[in-house]
Amino acid sequence: MRRIGLAVxxxxxxTLSSLxxxxxxxxxxxxxGVLSNAPPTTPEVSRNWxxxxxxxxxxxxxxxxNIVIEARYAEGRLERFLSLAAELVSLKxxxxxxxxxxxxxHAAKQATRTIPxxxxxxxxxxxxxxxxxxxxxxxxxxxxxFIVGNQIVGKQLELLKEAVPTVSxxxxxxEVLSGPGISRETxxxxxxxAVKLQVLEVRSPNELEGAFAAMTxxxxxxxxxxxxxxxxxxxxxxxxxxxxxxxxxxxxxxxxAEAGGLMAYAASAPDMFRRAATFVDKxxxxxxxxxxxxxxxTKFELVINLxxxxxxxxxxxxxxxxxxxxxxx
Length: 329
Fold this sequence. Notes:
Blueprint: H1 2-27, E1 30-36, H2 43-58, E2 67-73, H3 81-90, E3 95-99, H4 101-111, E4 117-122, E5 141-145, H5 149-163, E6 169-175, H6 184-192, E7 196-202, H7 208-218, E8 222-225, H8 229-233, H9 235-244, E9 249-251, H10 254-258, E10 263-267, H11 269-284, E11 300-305, H12 306-311, H13 318-321, E12 326-328
Parallel strand pairs: 1-2, 1-3, 3-4, 4-5, 6-7, 6-8, 8-9, 9-10, 11-12
Antiparallel strand pairs: 10-11
């Protein structure tokens, strides 16, 4: 009987110890740092971060209860990412979410080798040295990539040709410092479509006006914008320059079409932000970023801006309109 009593006491102690441990864990408030370009002051950006918060909420994380979010925004000034990353690290967050990966992700990684980092819109994370590989990122960073950019560029070119059947010369805007360049697959697609690509490389936002001036001199009939940090951060500026140059353009981000671009064929941003919440959930529960494979986009959207089409004097074919996920009037 004494042995049974002792066993019962020990079992009760273990159970109580476990319950206390769980209560302590539940009572912890985790700090999430956000390092991003644009603050949620527009409907497009707000929608994305709402999807992120919703994804967290679905997994039991509620801001003000068990998580606190500290956000810092570069607001188009890419040089600020390094100082903002250092500022976030000084707050000792449990995790940092970085958008876009090619700039914010690198800045966060440079600022800390220990705090876990989840990036979104990593345009070529392996090529840029952000992670060792997609399957096993290594280090303290993982996230979601746009590395399928080279695979969808051919599709974007097809859509542009369908919208503007007469186009025969297309400028391809490429950022030298990040993102995929023009692949052999894209060049092959251009040949099949009887389109000649005029590749224009830029290294900074200061070179955008010069690139569009070159497009005018070369008399191109359309514009293909490749996915990279510059086209993500300066989506509205590029859309404005395309409108000024009266160039029908296809973009890799929905935000570009919403900012006035003609068309976008892009990974769904809200879906990407919602999936990022899964990474945050796993890491806060003990998973190591080094062992969480980088994910590629699985959901894509075709967005057409009819207001821009009208301004350009274009009539978008019905065959294209019926395939659109969203039409901006």
